[in-house]
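REQUEST FORM: STRUCTURE PREDICTION
Request ID: SP-0412
Submitted by: Lab K.M.
Chain count: 1
Length (residues): 236
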Amino acid sequence: MSKNFINELPSKSAFKVGLLSGLAVAFVIGFFILLGLVVDKDDNGDDSNGLSAANSLVTIAKELGGNSKKLNKCIKADKFANKVASDSRSGQDAGARGTPYNVILSGDLKVVIPGALPYSQIQEMLDTIMAGGTPENNDPNLNIEGIKDGDRVLGDKDAPITIVEYSDLDCPYCKRFHGTMHQVIDNYDNVNWVFRHFPLPQLHPDATNKAKTAECVGDVAGEDKFWEFIDVLSKE
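STATUS: Completed
RESULT:
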């Protein structure tokens, strides 16, 4: 709009045109300032008015260093629903009917750990295996796989002994056994621990959500954070 055009307008019209032009400029400037604030908030993962403010699981994950925006996106997309369901099916195929359900794998041995046994009994089983013996509860026909793609593994993946655990993150016995498994890993460098989800929603309605959130934490923040996250849940 040229200056000459405005000068040719009646004074009232010129005033209105000038006022509207000024408002338009102010609106555009304000829009870009607001856009910059929104982009900056997103880049920092600050979604305090979204799921992260209401979801205590995301709050825990954020305290461990997870990006709340990315976690929220993963959770809302239900990204790991299939993995949790797959873990559960494999647990059923392996004979799991409750939790915790654990199987020691070493060579042809498939030794079922019946329930949340204390560390001393797990130690006895492992020492028997390492001495070339066969513990009770060995079932060579058990339908269970060792480490596979997508598994969460603590310890040396190439260790000769694997303990596969099917667990419900709300199960009180699983929480107790969680500490036992950490003792095993701390004391046996030839053992690794595979954690698979086996939520029991009929007993623990939020267990499936916790399992999927744990997987999102691992996906967004890394394998170590997955284990840190379930460590925190095991102490609740």
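NOTES: Confidence is low (pLDDT under 50) at residues 31-54.
Reviewed by: T.R.
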